[in-house]
Amino acid sequence: MIPQAHTDAYLRGTLRMGEQLARHTSWRVGGPADRYYEPADLDDLVQFLRTVPAQEAIHWIGLGSNLLVRDGGVRGTVLCVTGRLKGLAAIADNRVRAEAGVPCAQLARFCVRSGLSGAEFLAGIPGTVGGALAMNAGAFGGETWRIVLAVETIDRHGQIRTRFPGDYKVSYRSVVGPEQEWFVAGHFQLVAGVAAEGKALIRSLLAKRGTTQPTQLPNAGSVFRNPPGDHAARLIEATGLKGVCEGDACVSELHANFIINRGKATAAQIERLIGIIQERVLAAQNVRLEPEVRIIGVES
Ligand SMILES: Cc1cc2nc3c(=O)[nH]c(=O)nc-3n(C[C@H](O)[C@H](O)[C@H](O)COP(=O)(O)OP(=O)(O)OC[C@H]3O[C@@H](n4cnc5c(N)ncnc54)[C@H](O)[C@@H]3O)c2cc1C
Question: How much is the pTM?
Answer without folding.
Answer: 0.96
